[in-house]
């Protein structure tokens, strides 16, 4: 999971590293001056609500000075490259840069040129490791698996536009590392069997056939900004086939939970009443995001050294 001080992916994550980080986030055993005298930049080339604000808050709670930068209004419009933008920000003396970028591989690219710690806050359709950590924390707490983080026997459906989703890739890796089994559910083009093979997950195209057997349904937005609209036939009744509505939610196990990394499109992948129901742990995922990002930032700066 860690490459030196950088957190770039959950692919091939060490389960013991995952569990240690989740323990720390659960117990909130942070030194609240852990980042005192340190500076953290959030560098976002793509829009965000949850990730950017929670990283910023997490860094502030640990005593860091925080600068939030977005590409809108920046010198990117004058043709500055990703690496030059990164070097410019790093040269101002930041200890950690939290980066989001629409291109897969962008976080690793800058990490290869970095002296500071680089945290991947989402790169294209590739990875979003801290979202997966937040989701594992919220799920473990909801299912009473938060002592030992052993997810053996837990089955999770990741539903919707899996092929465009960095959340699906990061969650598939993290959840399976903790012992869960994962099924990708969606239309053929959004949940292709090749993706399932690559991620080691099952694949299904009938949501109703899967929902009754899962302990969690993680609903995904259709990522129109990555061209996902072309994956569906014209006029395809998406909500009818793959939307988690109240009737479908009622057929889930009593103990099963509903998840969504956000942002949600109510009435498309999830009906509003389901998102707001007692089954939903969506707001807990957001809350878990702050604790997980505190643990990640503390660990990153510790790995960076003096
Ligand atoms: N889940 C997630 O990454 O949300 P934001 O785009 O709002 O950060």
Structural class: alpha/beta
Bound compounds, please? phosphoric acid mono(formamide)ester
Major β-sheet, in short? Answer: 5 strands, parallel
The amount of helix comes to: 25-40%
Shape: globular
Give the mean pLDDT: 97
| Low-confidence runs of at least 5 consecutive residues | none
Describe this structure in words.
The chain is an alpha/beta fold and about 300 residues long. Helix content is about 40%, strand content about 15%. It is built from twelve helices and eleven strands. A five-stranded parallel β-sheet has the order 9-8-7-10-11. The chain has a four-stranded parallel β-sheet with strand order 4-3-5-6, with helices on both faces. Helix 2 packs across helix 12 and helix 5 packs across helix 6 (about 165-175). The two termini are about 20 Å apart. The structure holds phosphoric acid mono(formamide)ester. The site of phosphoric acid mono(formamide)ester has 10 residues, from helix 2.
């Amino acid at each position: 999971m860690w490459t030196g001080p950088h957190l770039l992916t959950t692919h091939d994550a060490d389960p013991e590293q995952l569990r240690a980080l989740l323990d720390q986030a659960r117990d909130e055993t942070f030194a609240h001056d852990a980042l005192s005298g340190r500076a953290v930049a959030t560098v976002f080339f793509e829009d965000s609500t949850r990730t950017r604000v929670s990283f910023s808050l997490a860094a502030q709670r640990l005593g860091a000075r925080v600068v939030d930068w977005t590409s809108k209004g920046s010198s990117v419009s004058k043709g500055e490259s990703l690496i030059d933008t990164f070097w410019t920000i790093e040269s101002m003396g930041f200890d950690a840069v939290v980066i989001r970028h629409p291109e897969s591989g962008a976080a690793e690219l800058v990490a290869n040129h970095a002296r500071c710690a680089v945290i991947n806050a989402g790169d294209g359709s590739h990875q979003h490791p801290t979202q997966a950590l937040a989701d594992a924390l919220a799920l473990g707490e909801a299912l009473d698996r938060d002592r030992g983080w052993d997810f053996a026997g837990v089955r999770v459906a990741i539903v919707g536009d899996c092929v465009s989703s960095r959340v699906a890739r990061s969650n598939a890796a993290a959840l399976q590392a903790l012992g869960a089994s994962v099924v990708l559910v969606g239309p053929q083009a959004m949940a292709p069997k090749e993706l399932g093979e690559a991620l080691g997950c099952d694949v299904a195209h009938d949501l109703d056939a899967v929902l009754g057997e899962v302990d969690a349904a993680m609903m995904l937005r259709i990522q129109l900004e990555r061209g996902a609209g072309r994956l569906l036939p014209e006029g395809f009744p998406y909500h009818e086939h793959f939307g988690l509505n109240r009737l479908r939610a009622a057929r889930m196990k009593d103990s099963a939970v509903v998840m969504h990394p956000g942002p949600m499109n109510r009435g498309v992948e999830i009906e509003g009443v389901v998102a707001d129901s007692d089954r939903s742990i969506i707001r807990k995922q957001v809350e878990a995001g702050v604790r997980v990002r505190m643990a990640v930032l503390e660990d990153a700066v510790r790995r960076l050294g003096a």
